[in-house]
# Entry
Amino acid sequence: MSIPEIETKSFVEVKQHQELKLQELLSYVIKNSKYYQRVFKAQNIDISQIKLLEDLAKLPTTSKDDLQKHNDDFICVNSSEIIDYITTSGTLGDPVVFAMTNNDLDRLAYNEEVSFACANTTKDDIYQLMVTLDRRFMAGMAYFSGLRKLGAGVIRVGPGNPELQFDTIERIKPTALVTVPSFLVKLIEYAEKNGIDYKNSSIKKAVCIGESLRNADFSPNTLAQKIQDKWNIELYSTYASTEMGTAFTECKEGKGGHHHPELVIVEFLDDEGNQVGKGEAGEVTITTLGVEAMPLIRFRTGDICHHYTEKCACGRTSMRLGPIVGRKRQMIKYKGTTIYPPALYNLLNEIEDVENYIVEVSTNNIGTDDILIRVGSNNTSDKFEKTIKDHFRAKLRVAPTIRFENPKQILKEQFPEMSRKPITFVDKR
# Structure
């Protein structure tokens, strides 16, 4: 498909479009949302005074805690209009139920249609989905719907099971995958162990979810490099969440995930709720457009990242979202150093003999953060432990506690039966 016209417009034109949609949204929630009716009344907010994107600062933000405590009050439609019920993954707390109308499902399909188009997808592609379409998961359904709308073929294999994945590749000859990138590493290991000629398969690219592929300068991070050193396929990074019902997907330039301004307004806020300055990282804060069942206003995702507004070489003028620095609630203060889990993952992925890992953070007896890294490895020598710690000291100035465990046990905990995403971080604070 061609690039949507709105995504090639000037900043001024996009802003005017979003301001019209914002006024429609505010009129809608003041009539239908118990939550926003209550909040706006309590804070004496007159929505007629909210006309410009800059006026959003006059409105309160919405948090994950608000969604968890007042879940039902966010629903704006009668139950008879709800077609699908899904839940968030519950990574940072209890899962939140999201209701979706028929129009919401159409919006979701459109989002993935334009997102896959960013990743050079055409109707000639066949995608193998290595994600679940059940377990109340939005993303799997979104990928299927978007690819169907785009006219591409879809094979619904689901997560895990390398044997079935390669059997499907051999039988049907898909051209692309949707998967968690760390699972690609497992597929490569399985193929090499079982003599599968994966390098000469039909696969040309992978749209990767759940984990970053880029460093801050957009160069491939350790995980991406580990994949591409073995398997010369194109990798496209994405960022999305259930709450926004929108994805930011890279184009062939690999310079950040493209914003779809027709679907969501995005702000980048500091700890005090102010817009960050140019070049500064801020918390991704979204206002959904075109959502019927559960629209959100100034929802703070908890994800910290940079953003870029220069025109992309692909022709899109829309804002681009940089790699996620980390999640605000997962920030670790360790021996005077501020660390986000992705920094730990990148270092661990660089170290040979580290097969897998889980990072655990807890509070010690003096009230500060402790880090335990449970490393799955067949090399459990004192020398290897020292190598790992020296690597951390060289890059982060501090060394966490290391505990070696059976890689099979770590893998089992990373991918529990009902999990929709790999578990690499456990917060016990």
Notes: The first helix runs from residue 11 to 32.
